[in-house]
Amino acid sequence: MGNVESHALTRTYLSSFSPEEQTVLDSVFDIISGSRSTEGTKSGKAAQKNITLAKLKSYVHGGVPSTMTIRLYNGMRSIEAIKKSEGFSDAISKKQFVLFLSYAMRGTAEEKGFIIQRMISQDADGPVKGTQIKQFTEDLIMSVIYLLRHEHMLFGWSLEKTADCNFGVARLTTALMSHLKAKGGQYLSTDYLLNVEYGLQALKDWVYRVTHIPYFLHAFVALGLHITSAQSHSELFSTKHMLPQCEGIKYTGQYTFFDIPSVMYLNTYLPSEHQSQWQLLYSSQFHGESFTRFCSLILHKGPSLLVIKDSDGYTFGGFASQSWSARPQFQGDSKCFLFTLSPHFGIYTCTGYNDHYMYLNHGQQTMPNGLGMGGQLYYFGLWIDSDYGGGHSKAKPRCTTYNSPQLSAQEYFRIDTLELWRVGNPPKGQSFQKNTVLDAEPEAQALLQMIGKTRMSEGLQDPGKNYKPE
């Protein structure tokens, strides 16, 4: 009777999943527990299937930190314990397994906050310290990146052709934790938030407001338990939106100073229609330090991300919501924003004070020549000089257009590296005529650089002369 009731309860919780999803979950549970639905005991009763820590460790990929596998196990066994008076069970039932997945992947903020609290600490009623949340968040992000790499789901990004992932994880963790509210609803500085204790309500509020946390939790559970499927059309198991498709570095000599956590962070702030694909259009490390060359590669190419690393190591930039066009007037719209990536993450959106979103001018005598975003003429929130090499970020106390602080280490900065990435698909109906065969073949450009050859025509093209007007 007991087995029949338990089976009925499990089916009730499974009903929140589609038949296709139920089939996947049944299979995964059977594999982890080391049993099959047709098995039975010698007495003829249905075999009791469960998951132990040892079984889970042997199933989850060995590259995942052991601490995260233990967290996963603790999260599962803390749900609906069979005998509450005896505390948590050592074996995880089918009901607990299904409930955990329901909470982690389809649950409310309250349910996901509960899961996270149990994965951090087994003290059901006690608070968790800021240091514990920090370690959990870092482990969670790193595990997701590792699993994406192992499952060949980095979508063209490469850990070898991007900046150090560890530094990006640390900065992203700090940015996410800055949204935690202490008792009394107060936000604390980085120096204090690690020493504060947070209750379950604070974690629930955090999960509700910071979408990255449930996003990473979903991906870790789906990838860690191998319930993602290229053949499955179920959004429940999908991790396809974790990273945009990267175009422009995989088969070339190019690399980027972006790190993968920064890409994940920035991509979530882009309009949804621009999140599926990024293409590297210009890199000063590869295309040279020429403003004319820069303009020739970025004009009329659609929305883009400009990112700069200054000589002091600060990394910052802006999202241009429309194609760049060379003309002595402001352009763009309120979807534009400025951002910082190092030494910390920050997104700065439009204030509505003015419409000075984007500016690009070249070859004029009466107006400033260069690229700018926000602020006023000669006083931009972000500015790159047309003679290349320098720029400024003026914000005393804040940029009027984006309410951004000074982005660079110093008001007038020197450019170490500059990149521009098109985001989303190329503009519809846009015809691009390449200047040369080498322009169309980045692999050939890479080979020329490898053997020490240069292109005499580099940077001499007239900006935009081969593009149709918008």
Write the layout of secondary structure elements.
Elements: H1 2-14, H2 19-33, H3 53-59, H4 66-77, H5 94-106, H6 109-120, E1 128-129, H7 130-150, H8 165-177, E2 181-182, E3 186-187, H9 190-193, E4 197-198, H10 200-209, H11 212-224, E5 245-247, H12 260-267, E6 277-283, H13 284-287, H14 291-298, E7 304-310, E8 315-320, E9 327-331, E10 337-342, E11 346-349, E12 358-361, E13 370-376, E14 379-385, E15 390-392, E16 412-423, H15 437-440, H16 442-450
Helix pairs in contact: 1-5, 4-6, 6-10, 7-8, 7-11, 8-12
Keywords:
two-stranded antiparallel sheet; alpha+beta; 17% strand; single chain; 470 residues
Any overview of this molecule?
This protein is α+β, with helices and mostly antiparallel strands and 470 residues long. The protein has helices spanning 2-14, 19-33, 53-59, 66-77, 94-106, 109-120, 130-150, 165-177, 190-193, 200-209, 212-224, 260-267, 284-287, 291-298, 437-440, 442-450, and strands spanning 128-129, 181-182, 186-187, 197-198, 245-247, 277-283, 304-310, 315-320, 327-331, 337-342, 346-349, 358-361, 370-376, 379-385, 390-392, 412-423. Strands 5, 6, 7, 8, 9, 10, 11, 12, 13, 14, 15 and 16 form a 12-stranded mixed beta sheet that branches. A two-stranded antiparallel ribbon has the order 1-4. The protein has a two-stranded antiparallel ribbon with strand order 2-3. Strand 10 and strand 11 form a beta hairpin. Helix 7 (130-150) crosses helix 8. The protein is elongated.
